[in-house]
Amino acid sequence: MKPFTYERARTPAQAAAAVARTPGAKFLAGGTNLLDLMKLEIEAPGHLVDVQDLKLDRIEKTREGGIRIGALVTNTALASDDRVRRDYGVLTRAIVAGASGQLRNKATTAGNLLQRTRCPYFYDPNQACNKRKPGSGCAAIGGYSRQLGVIGTSDACIATYPGDMAVALRALDATVETVNSAGAERRIPIADFHRLWGDTPHIETALAPGELITAVTLPKPLGGTHLYHKVRDRASYAFALVSVAAVVQKDGSGRLAIGGIAPKPWRVEAAEAAMPQGAQAVAGRLLAGARPTRDNAFKVPLVERTIAAVMAEAKAA
Amino acid sequence: MKFDTPAGTNPIDRLTVVGKPTDRIDGPKKTTGTAPYAYERHDVAANPAYGYVLGAGIAKGRIASMDLAAARAAPGVLAIVTHENAGKLGKGDMNTARLLGGPAIDHYHQAIAIVVADTFEQARHAAGLIRVDYARAKGRFDLDEQLRAAPLKGDSSGEGSAAPPIERVGDFDRAFAAAPVTLDQRYTTPDHSHAMMEPHATIAAWEGDKLTVWTSNQMIAWAVGDLAKTLLIPKENIRVDSPFVGGGFGGKLFLRADVVMAALAAREAKRAVKVALQRPLIANNTTHRPATAQRIRLGCAKDGTITAIAHESGSGDLPGGGPETATSQTKLLYAGANRLTAMRLAVLDLPEGNAMRAPGEAPGMMALEMAIDEMAEKLGMDPVAFRVKNDTQVDPAKPERRFSQRRLVECLERGAREFGWDRRSATPARVRDGQWLVGLGVAAAFRNNINMKSAARVRVSGGRVTVETDMTDIGTGSYTIIAQTAAEMLGVPLSAVDVRLGDSTFPVSSGSGGQWGANSATAGVYAACAKLREAVAAKLGFNSADVTFADGQVSAGGRQVPLAQAGDLSAEDAMEYGDLAKKEQQSTFGAHFVEARVHALTGEIRVERMLAVCAAGRILNPKSARSQVIGAMTMGVGAALMEELAVDKRFGFFVNHDLASYEVPVHADIPYQQVIFLDEVDPTTSPMKAKGVGELGICGVGAAVANAIYNATGVRVRDYPITLEKHLEKLPATAMA
């Protein structure tokens, strides 16, 4: 691990300024992903700005009838919040499907949005990885790619965004609120927050250097049945092969976001119009243009089948 | 003491302490964190420095150059050892690849340097500053490709499973050709990682030319011998100490790089050095269970009698390595007049293959017991009935040679009753529960028993008993069963016995491997206790041979004297074995039953219920034995459903080399497990009348899971692990929403 310096910020703007003025600086919140990556020298920040004192750990009502989730609200606190459980069940279900109790106690809302891919070649510094070392190539292409992406990937990178929480946030049309070093605030729709890899897979989000997430807001509740089906090789503590976050209304209309297949939670609003026609019609539209590898071609039918399972469950609910 | 005639009645048969379900005597230490593992031995060496191991970044080739300048100049760095300054090294008998690589590289993540610094973080940082230029060479990484021209090769796992290159009994080809019902299928099992919780770890310290290593190892005497051969020093100058081991599974049978690198580093730094192999190194740096490609052919008469049985297995290893002995059990498990077993060994430049829990039988039974299930279906027979019909009480190749004990049929029939086997639908894919398909599966369990010479020293002082032996407790319960044995033999309560293990200054034991530890190590303690009883009796003035040790008293002929009056006496002895195991086949048997569910749409697989019925000689401690078996069953679920070291055939390494990507079962995967031990004593194994049981638990369980999945879905997957994509698109048609 590369030596680094450390400071604790007291206000969001101060934190953003500290990161902006220090080359190679990073924010540190729960640290459940960043510290692991630092130990492996995959991340090597020269300076850490600890944001845990920023008092961004509250969940509040918004004037629009939704909720505003502070960036430092832990996964555990968010998943167990009464309003979230009642009005945004898909979010609770997605969070508790991820990681372990211990990790969820430390992991924060903002940090979870920023967790990095679990591609095994990204994790092995002996292997070429454009995300870890821009321009070095991608050893995953042509390699062991069972867990990796089938859509939205590029010739430079076929990794996925691995998280669960963000998949539910995408179905809920969340908005990410930020502040930059100049104190300017910005609202980024969740759909635009994670980027497709393109030629620059090391740039993973819409955040500018030093821009700090302060909150995630959810619009007013949608009603309907909230489901999260995470398909994985073991029953717990594993990343999704495919996951489906769903909010389904009584008339069969609804929203679907897919995890485990792309650089971002994958949602195609136009595909949702096909929900009354069944999973096949939805999946066909969702995955148009998919480019699976030999190892992960099964994810294409698995998406359709998991959507079918979720829709059947919603109907039975 | 020589054990060469079947045991008669002896003090163990009283079963006042032995045979009782007893809590581990080391349990409170384990649960309070006061049983220190190797890396936590803070008291043994003053001011240790920290070592960080650098693994090779290529699988095959040479180090063209190494630039250590930046690393040497980094803060806190005390020493760096590479092949350039390590001095001349030998190689241990048990190691295939060298534990310090360079300039030639034999496999990915082979250790090529250790950096020693004042702190762990400094050592890790400096290791990252070493620049290595490699000249890559072409390697052989594809097992299927290399097996095409691989030669026949016989071998012994050294752990009970063994097979010659090729063995024929009767005329297989003719019988197979003539059989009215036949099966000819290919099955594959992948490379597996031991994935133990405690990484390989060592603290090494030199005093002059004497070396002490506090480490984590299953076989203390092997470690001493191979370390001496590697460092080219007399083994008398080496002490190995390993009182607690946080999981081994065969991965710590042998000397590994943590020990050698710590010893070299401590010599170079002139200071004690502690090393834990970093988790991402372990899969490729250490050993693994090799992948297999197996072909099984069965020929049966219409009544279900097996007339022809052939099992061929191919695996690969580094040059000089050995095959996975996956055909071994097929020589003994079922009757059949015409038989063929054969093994092929390909050369691979992947990391070293070696023993992992039940080497040979574990992957061999995954294939064989699936084939048996398939054949039963072809015959229209219940798979339990088909197995029962083909039971044999003798070695099929040598009918004059009987099994010492064989209760396979009883295991199957008892298990079928207890599990509700009669509720199984003979036709697959008929049972549904909502979106889930439900199936039941069965498999036989089989694992050979072996007895190893084992010594111990027992001391009685003031009525307290101390046992010393270099036996290890790798989470199995050795401390407890040894204490039970000594307590029974000397007539004292368990609480009056202290057991000290894992130190090479103690008498040499069997060590822990091949499920031989429980019977062998306690038999060694029995021998030492028997000798001590004689010394005590003599000192207390008993002439009779019929002296009773009970309740802290020594008595004979109406006279009773407290044991404490014997003062301070000690005795040392070993149990050695004659040829009883040659005269009769000693094996352990069982039956595994599994209920599995498969999601009709997503193909997800979940195990709901498991039962193992075991017949494995006297069960010395039903509580720790049950823990062994349920652990093994869990490992079998891993092998069936998720465990696979994924090979990158371009670059020659196991890609998923951490515990996030090499998945093993978690609690949520294992809802309900039951274990039944049949009453059995086997007087041919030792005065303990026990056999191994830990590895029996993993043998066959993977196939039972696979057979349950097939029963649920009607889709047969013959390539382990059975991950959902292998049956997803063949699942029975289900109305999609």
From TrEMBL, chain A:
Q: Where is the signal peptide?
A: none
SMART domains for this protein: CO_deh_flav_C
Gene3D superfamilies documented for this protein: 3.30.465.10, CO dehydrogenase flavoprotein, C-terminal domain, Uridine Diphospho-n-acetylenolpyruvylglucosamine Reductase, domain 2
Top-level taxonomic group: Bacteria
Q: Which UniProt keywords apply?
A: FAD, Flavoprotein
Limits of the FAD-binding PCMH-type domain: 1-223
**SUPFAM superfamilies attached to this UniProt entry:** CO dehydrogenase flavoprotein C-terminal domain-like, FAD-binding/transporter-associated domain-like
PANTHER family in the record: ALDEHYDE OXIDOREDUCTASE FAD-BINDING SUBUNIT PAOB, XANTHINE DEHYDROGENASE SUBUNIT C-RELATED
UniProt protein name: Xanthine dehydrogenase family protein subunit M
| Source lineage | Bacteria, Pseudomonadati, Pseudomonadota, Alphaproteobacteria, Sphingomonadales
From TrEMBL, chain B:
Which Pfam family would be a valid example here? MoCoBD_1
Q: Which residues form the Aldehyde oxidase/xanthine dehydrogenase a/b hammerhead domain?
A: 32-138
Under Gene3D superfamilies, the record lists: Aldehyde oxidase/xanthine dehydrogenase, a/b hammerhead (3.90.1170.50), Aldehyde oxidase/xanthine dehydrogenase, molybdopterin binding domain (3.30.365.10)
Name it.
Answer: Xanthine dehydrogenase family protein molybdopterin-binding subunit
According to its UniProt entry, this protein's organism is Sphingomonas corticis
Mind giving the lineage of the organism this protein is from? Bacteria, Pseudomonadati, Pseudomonadota, Alphaproteobacteria, Sphingomonadales
